[in-house]
Write a structure and sequence with these properties.
By secondary structure, this protein is mainly beta.
């Protein structure tokens, strides 16, 4: 088995059939290939799980279901676990690629008033 990379977390169950809401860390969204197998840690072991349904939106939140999980009770045991995948299932990062989540996106509106002034207010975009 190759190196495992932590990419997210299982957040909470949804419904009675064992679906689980999850989140992926922003820096991995554009690099993800297909999630054929993910690893969850139990104690000091990493166990493979095979998703049979996955929905993921552009914000990194989604819902999945595993072949092995048949109901909500079984899914409850997985909530809170971190999601790992093999590094080979990530697209390689380009040398010049910036990590978008670490860039400050504040924009300042400035009026004709001299600086510093209450008219110069930060605005989050």
């Amino acid at each position: 088995m190759e190196n495992l990379v932590k990419i997210g977390r299982l957040n909470k169950t949804f419904g009675l059939k064992g679906h689980i809401r999850f989140s992926i860390e922003p820096q991995f969204l554009s690099r993800l290939k297909k999630l054929e197998v993910i690893f969850l840690t139990t104690g000091n072991k990493s166990l493979p799980y095979f998703p049979d349904q996955i929905e993921l939106d552009e914000s990194g939140r989604g819902m999945l279901h595993f072949e092995e999980v048949k109901d909500k009770t079984a899914a409850d045991f997985l909530v809170g676990k971190e999601i790992f995948i093999e590094e080979k299932f990530l697209k390689k990062r380009k040398a010049f690629e910036w990590v978008a989540h670490s860039v400050d996106t504040r924009v300042f509106q400035h009026s004709a008033a001299p600086f510093p002034d209450a008219a110069c207010q930060p605005r989050v975009c």
